Amino acid sequence: MRIVIAEDDALLREGLALLLRAESLDVVATAGGPAEFLTALDEHRPDVAIVDVRMPPTHTDEGIVAAVEARRRRPDLAVLVLSAHVEQAFATDLLAGGAARLGYLLKERVGRVEEFLGALHRVAAGGTAIDPEVVAQLFARTRTDTRLERLSPREREVLALMAEGLGNTAIGERLVVTDGAVHKHIRSIFAKLDLPPDDRADRRVTAVLRYLEDVRRRA
């Protein structure tokens, strides 16, 4: 796995590089700003980019803008965004491009090494890793979604595995069912959650976010 790190805090940047290299991961470049990051992206063509939300010169949205641009240049690039606080608008902007190969974590998760590495590998493998606190705040002003109660036990099980970042084949292997059965369950989930095929949002990530918020509310 080839990784580029974009983080303006030198201590955190080098700490991340040391941590990942200790795990035998290939950190091909580090960058302290968005322009340097995009240059490294074009030069090294990494598999994964770890990007801080707030970067120079204004420390507002430069990092998230760079992450969106990186995804535009390299649709196959996995991006793990780190933020000191939940940036609700930024998270929504990033998710608007689809949830595959995308992670959004609070920086405090980095200290939980296994959790952080698990999220990194999940994103690199094509899955999604969204911080529970990000999910909570994205849904903080919404009413309880009772549509999840329409799901059958098996459909809820499939949705839980989707929330873990598993693709359809992996879900089928976990549940010992065919790909066709998984597709059928997911179509039913989308229908019961009122997510039509022409929905501009990524239906998979919308369903997962609703599930995660329901889990948080019940906890």
TrEMBL record:
On this chain, the residues bearing 4-aspartylphosphate are D52
Which GO molecular function terms does the record list?
DNA binding
Q: Which GO terms describe its biological process?
A: phosphorelay signal transduction system; regulation of DNA-templated transcription
Entry superkingdom: Bacteria
**Gene3D superfamilies from the UniProt entry:** 3.40.50.2300
Which InterPro entries did the record assign? CheY-like_superfamily (IPR011006), NreC/VraR/RcsB-like_REC (IPR058245), Sig_transdc_resp-reg_C-effctor (IPR016032), Sig_transdc_resp-reg_receiver (IPR001789), Tscrpt_reg_LuxR_C (IPR000792), WalR-like (IPR039420)
Key words of the record: DNA-binding, Phosphoprotein, Transcription, Transcription regulation
Q: Where is the Response regulatory domain?
A: 2-122
Protein name in UniProt = LuxR family transcriptional regulator
